[in-house]
Design a protein that fits this description.
By secondary structure, the chain is mainly alpha-helical. Helix content is 76%, strand content 0%. The longest helix is centred in the middle third of the chain and has 23 residues, at 106-128.
């Protein structure tokens, strides 16, 4: 090879290596972005926690995350968004949910691939309207999956352990339940990883979760509907408080968002319970969108 050609090939190979390393951030950062964290390092740790809790869910989540990142590259979507996990975290969460809820087969793999594509397209569409995607695309594809279940015939797995509302550990367990992590100790470890990245927002979200837990224990005997939705309330209230903290809303609004998410859990649980449809993180999305919309003008002043 001529010296000039060799000298050109070396920088090209070096550039391709750096590009590949940078793009590998996306698939793992997707896991961290579920909790509003744009970090590949935290994403690796969260994936490890998930693998300890439920290896099939971790593997299906990783497959969905890699697929979403590859699709984002193929579509030439904004580089920083795909590398920080903003374009693929809904796909990763969808993959985790599929692995936690259903047994893998041909229909599972095919439909998960369709859902991954849909989450990426929906995230891009919401960004065009300047609406935070949150976990809206995940909720959308899961609702679609539930509606098509008679035709998809996905085989259910044994249900994951739920959180015990009788102890304060319910607050930490709910943090892990956002990604279908059941054991309390792993929920506590998940919360610790979040606090490493943004201690202030995570602590305020924990405080809101504690307030919600006190409300649950106080009202459980007189409001059966609230007690029946305890699991969903724990997850959605924590995510609402955390999300509003990340968006810079003051603590009172974070508590208001958590309370609103709790009420929406009860309302949606009553409305969808007879149909057998779970609402997943829809209350969190609605609560955050409502609070952000109500305070948008004040924040811009």
């Amino acid at each position: 090879m001529p010296a000039s050609a060799a000298s050109q090939a070396l920088p090209r190979a070096e550039g391709e290596r750096h590009w590949l390393i940078a793009e590998l951030h996306g698939p793992v950062a997707n896991f961290a972005q579920i909790y509003f964290i744009p970090s590949a390092g935290i994403g690796v740790l969260l994936l490890a926690v998930l693998a300890l809790a439920d290896l099939p869910a971790a593997l299906s989540g990783l497959a969905a995350s890699v697929s979403a990142s590859c699709l984002a590259i193929a579509l030439r979507l904004p580089r920083e968004q795909r590398r920080s996990g903003l374009l693929g975290y809904n796909a990763a969460l969808t993959g985790i949910a599929f692995g936690a809820l259903w047994q893998p087969d041909a229909a599972f793999v095919t439909w998960l691939a369709v859902c991954v594509c849909l989450t990426v397209f929906m995230t891009v569409m919401l960004a065009r309207y300047r609406l935070p995607a949150l976990t809206g695309p995940f909720v959308g594809v899961m609702a679609l999956t539930w509606g098509l279940q008679p035709w998809l015939a996905l085989l259910p797995r044994t249900g994951a352990p739920t959180c015990d509302t009788g102890t304060p550990g319910f607050v930490f367990c709910s943090v892990g339940q956002a990604v279908f992590v059941g054991p309390l100790v792993l929920g506590l470890l998940t919360w610790y990883l979040l606090a490493l990245w943004n201690a202030r927002a995570t602590l305020w979200a924990l405080a809101a979760g504690i307030a919600v837990w006190f409300s649950l224990t106080a009202l459980a005997t007189v409001w059966a509907a609230m007690a029946g939705q305890a699991g969903g309330i724990g997850v959605n209230a924590f995510l609402a408080a955390l999300g509003l903290g990340v968006f810079g809303r003051r603590p009172t609004l974070r508590f208001a968002g958590a309370a609103l998410a709790s009420i929406l859990c009860v309302a949606l649980g009553q409305a969808l319970g007879s149909l057998g449809w779970p609402y997943f993180t829809l209350p969190f999305n609605l609560a955050v969108w409502i609070v952000l919309a109500a305070t948008a003008q004040r924040q811009t002043r």
